[in-house]
Amino acid sequence: MKRQLELIFPERLVTRPVIYELSRRYPLVVFNIRRAKVTEKTGELVLELSAKKELLDKAIKWLKKKGIIINSVDADVLAG
């Protein structure tokens, strides 16, 4: 299963290696960074994630538990 998500990081997580932690905790989740914008106050990241549905759900739940806001992204948004 493949999902495209926008992740919005609060200020307290901007300098944390969250994506690294995600890759270590869920090594079978393959991710591709499609777009990123980071400032001192916030971080916005568009990721394409691929894995079995159950594993993707766990990874997304883990990100939300960290305090990251997650929104689904249409493929058209990335094309333009």
Radius of gyration: 12 Å
Number of strands: 4
CATH class: Alpha Beta
Structural shape? globular
**Beta-strand level of the residues, as a percent range?**
35-45%
Cα distance spanning the termini? 23 Å
Kindly identify the CATH topology.
Answer: Alpha-Beta Plaits
Helix/strand class: alpha+beta
**pLDDT < 50 stretches:** none
Q: Largest sheet, order of strands side by side?
A: 2-3-1-4
The total number of structural domains is 1
Report the total helices: 3
Any guess at the CATH architecture? Answer: 2-Layer Sandwich
Described by strand count, sense and barrel closure, the largest sheet is: 4 strands, antiparallel
Mean pLDDT: 93
SSE pattern: EHEEHEH
For the record, what is the CATH homologous superfamily label? ACT domain
Helix content: 25-40%
Kindly describe this structure.
The chain has 80 residues and is an alpha+beta fold. The protein has a single domain (2-79), classed as Alpha-Beta Plaits (2-Layer Sandwich), CATH 3.30.70.260. The chain has helices at 18-25, 53-66, 75-79, and strands at 2-9, 30-38, 43-50, 69-72. The protein has a four-stranded antiparallel β-sheet with strand order 2-3-1-4, covered by helices on one side.
